[in-house]
Design brief:
Layout (H helix, E strand, L loop, with lengths): L10 H13 L2 H10 L6 H41 L4 H19 L2 H11 L8 H9 L1
Helix pairs in contact: 1-2, 1-3, 1-5, 3-4, 3-5, 3-6
Length: 136
């Protein structure tokens, strides 16, 4: 199946796709129920599934970082007590690195949102391929 950005999406599909990214896919479920149509466009289905996966991955990623910080923080507190000059700096560096990664990951839904508003397919490495495989 060829995925072209030239496929014309209706204004309603664009709006619902944008709302899917804002609500983690809940707006898409409401749209499917209200439209009572069994056949949805590939544009809507792509953004709907991708928004759901991004929402799930964001939650899992936040939980993982939270669990890591709960485990790592006491270890570096002990290290800071043993070596005051290094432990705190290492803990701050790791915390800052995890925060940057989490913030960068949280920008992906906004990228999808912008592409949906423009009527294009948002190409997110790995995730878009998974969505396309599920749509076949």
């Amino acid at each position: 199946m060829v995925w072209r950005s030239q496929d014309k999406a209706t204004a309603l599909e664009r709006i619902v796709a944008v709302l899917c990214y804002l609500t983690g896919g809940l707006a898409g479920i409401v749209y499917i129920i209200l439209s009572r149509s069994s056949a949805q466009s590939s544009f809507f289905r792509f953004h709907f599934l991708q928004a759901i996966l991004l929402g799930i991955l964001t939650i899992l990623f936040q939980w993982t970082i939270g669990a890591l910080s709960l485990i790592v923080t006491p270890l570096f507190t002990l290290l800071d007590n043993a070596m005051p000059a290094t432990g705190g700096h290492i803990a701050n560096g790791i915390g800052m690195g995890l925060t940057i990664v989490l913030q960068a990951f949280s920008l992906l839904p906004f990228y999808g949102l912008i592409c949906a508003a423009l009527g294009k397919f948002a190409e997110i490495p790995f995730l878009s391929n998974v969505v396309r495989q599920q749509m076949r």
